[in-house]
């Protein structure tokens, strides 16, 4: 991530309050623009490039893929279809790295019979009804919605499996495969992903989940960036009391 810094005392640095005068804008398709005006087209605000009936994506959540895509929904969640019974819900201010894939329930095959082969997928015709297609999604015992909280960072080529909930502020390590729910403000890594550590102590986590700074007006977030990025919980609590 690129940012501007200013020195406040010898040996210390903080994020500048104004980076060229630009402010956060959730309506930008490409939110990263270099000082010379170069638009980084491989970074996109996901809710500005995805319009899918089974996806809900919060403001400022971005996908930093290493190439431009023509269909971000199909890449990110390739097995979530307009008729799928499940949803993919992603909160605000999430950071999704190159190659991340989210596998939803509609990818599953039925394991009740002798074969897992999806025969009916290849036997559709002009006579196949909407009800018959919807019934095909039910044979695999759907695991429900996949929910990713707010301010979640999913590292490069991470995979999220069906029906998982990832809590606010969690971090998923690169190439980790998340098959179980992830607690808020925890770090998980590996295959299958397992807890590595908790980011903050229980008291701080409880305060952050109550404060929910990501729901604040953009102007208030901007004015409290040093507290957010500097882990100053007392300053955030003070700001929250004035909301």
UniProtKB/TrEMBL annotation:
The keyword Transferase applies. It comes from the Bacteria. InterPro entries: Hexapep, Trans_hexapeptide_repeat, Trimer_LpxA-like_sf. Belongs to the transferase hexapeptide repeat family. Keywords: Transferase. GO terms for molecular function: transferase activity. Pfam families: Hexapep. This is Chloramphenicol O-acetyltransferase.
